[in-house]
């Protein structure tokens, strides 16, 4: 991304954050269900412009690698998982080989991701189940995936949406935090959150909505100190003001450790089934 475009994105966010301050003060009436749905869909559209090629930030080349990487990502960062999985997959490239692996060797390989003993049990167990129950192929159905060791609905939807093209909502901690801040739901339980958000958006949007929300949560709308003054959707956010509203101070809170900046078209990871991203400035 050019410096000029970075500046333009920042200025646009600052302008919108000022509008948000005014909107927050004037919004005394309770929001109707219809108004909330319209606002939610507008947030999704605007996030699509800010993150036009949001994608899973785990590196993978096939469904098996994505499944294992997603299980390993619990309680750690995608960056740390991406630093760890190349050696793991080079040593154990198939479910059959991972299922037969010495647990101590697997533990040593995945130690940097934390909770390595429990994760070793999960990934060797799911590899054995894939070998024994699914002919060595990762199943493409939710009801089959959630039966695998260490695999819940969140992990299953990551795999379904990004390896099989089956729409699903990835209700991780970022997603939960943002949809509650945006007043799309008041639920705390992930499955209830999933159901309420699914009712707002068409099914075809579920996977990309998840990526956009998670991108935004990682880069701008942080848990402890959201960068409200640098947020491009501040004018649509009922929680505006929970974080830093000064544009210059807010810019310092932005995080781009995975390489994706607001407005930047990102190259998809290996194995991602979507179409290549068009060059910057090209028509969608």
UniProtKB/TrEMBL annotation:
Hydrolase found in the keyword field: yes
Protein residues bound to [4Fe-4S] cluster: 221, 228, 231, 237
Flavoprotein in keyword set: no
SUPFAM superfamilies: DNA-glycosylase
Cofactor annotation: [4Fe-4S] cluster
Annotated function: DNA repair enzyme that has both DNA N-glycosylase activity and AP-lyase activity. The DNA N-glycosylase activity releases various damaged pyrimidines from DNA by cleaving the N-glycosidic bond, leaving an AP (apurinic/apyrimidinic) site. The AP-lyase activity cleaves the phosphodiester bond 3' to the AP site by a beta-elimination, leaving a 3'-terminal unsaturated sugar and a product with a terminal 5'-phosphate.
Official protein name in the record: Endonuclease III
Lineage: Bacteria, Bacillati, Actinomycetota, Actinomycetes, Kitasatosporales
């Amino acid at each position: 991304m050019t410096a000029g475009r970075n500046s333009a994105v920042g200025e646009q966010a600052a302008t919108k954050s000022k509008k948000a301050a005014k909107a927050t003060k004037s919004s005394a009436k309770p929001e109707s269900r219809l108004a909330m749905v319209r606002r939610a869909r507008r947030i999704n559209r605007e996030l699509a412009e800010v993150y036009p090629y949001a994608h899973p930030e785990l590196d993978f080349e096939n469904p098996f690698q994505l499944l294992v990487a997603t299980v390993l990502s619990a309680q750690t960062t995608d960056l740390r998982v991406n630093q760890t999985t190349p050696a793991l997959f080079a040593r154990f490239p198939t479910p059959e080989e991972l299922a037969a692996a010495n647990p101590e060797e697997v533990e040593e390989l995945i130690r940097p991701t934390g909770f390595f003993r429990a994760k070793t049990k999960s990934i060797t167990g799911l590899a054995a189940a894939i070998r024994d129950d699914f002919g060595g192929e990762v199943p493409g159905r939710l009801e089959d995936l959630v039966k695998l060791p260490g695999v819940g609905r969140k992990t299953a939807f990551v795999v379904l949406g990004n390896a099989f093209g089956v729409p699903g909502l990835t209700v991780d901690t970022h997603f939960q935090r943002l949809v509650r801040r945006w007043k799309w739901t008041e639920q705390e339980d992930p499955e209830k959150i999933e159901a309420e958000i699914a009712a707002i958006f068409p099914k075809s949007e579920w996977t990309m909505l998840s990526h956009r929300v998670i991108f935004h949560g990682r880069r701008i709308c942080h848990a402890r100190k959201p960068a409200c003054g640098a947020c491009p959707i501040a004018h649509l956010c009922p929680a505006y003001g929970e974080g830093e509203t000064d544009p210059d101070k807010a810019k310092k809170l932005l995080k781009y450790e995975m390489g994706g900046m607001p407005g930047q078209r990102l190259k998809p990871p290996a194995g991602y089934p979507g179409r290549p991203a068009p060059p910057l400035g090209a028509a969608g």
